[in-house]
Amino acid sequence: MSSILVCYGTTEGQTAKIAGRIADGLRERGHTVETVDLSTSDPADPAGYDAVLVGASIHVGGHQSAVRSFVDAHRETLAARPTGFFQVCLSIVADDEATQAEAAGYVDEFIEATAWQPDRIAVFGGALRYSKYGFLKRQVLKRIAKDMTGDTDTSRDYEYTDWEAVARFAADFADFVEGDRAEPSEPSFLE
């Protein structure tokens, strides 16, 4: 089987949790998988892997700079092997189509800015962790959540990740790496 690098940037931990689930799904298929948080660890050289998945979350309208730097530094290596990109974003769970389109637009902006074209792309809902926020951040996110999800009870946390979509993305990427599927599954944005 293949060796796969799953690297990501995370701010509040949901992207790390998703990366872990993707890694578990790939391991179940017999692949050797290493996960690396690009925000806190020296990035592994992707040349040492058969395939690479890159994940990032959106905060204040942008992805983690460590993820962007990794892709910029390894663009040619990434282009030479199967790759995928997954984004974690609260906006994707909004009922408003314009807000969902904005979430998809972040992916487009990232691809354009890095000149990298991953083979597989997915966008997943994130989480609101009111219990971990300070007073000011809790109030700001409560205001944002009011319009997006309506979940403004700050006495509890909310998780919006569709774990079945995460499992489908991992399976689709494994199929692609294994040569069982040449074309991306539809839709590219699985959530």
TrEMBL record:
It holds the Pfam family Flavodoxin_5. Residues 4-168 form the Flavodoxin-like domain. This is Menaquinone-dependent protoporphyrinogen oxidase. GO terms for biological process: heme biosynthetic process. It comes from the Archaea. It comes from Halogranum gelatinilyticum. The lineage of its organism: Archaea, Methanobacteriati, Methanobacteriota, Stenosarchaea group, Halobacteria. One of its GO terms (molecular function) is FMN binding.
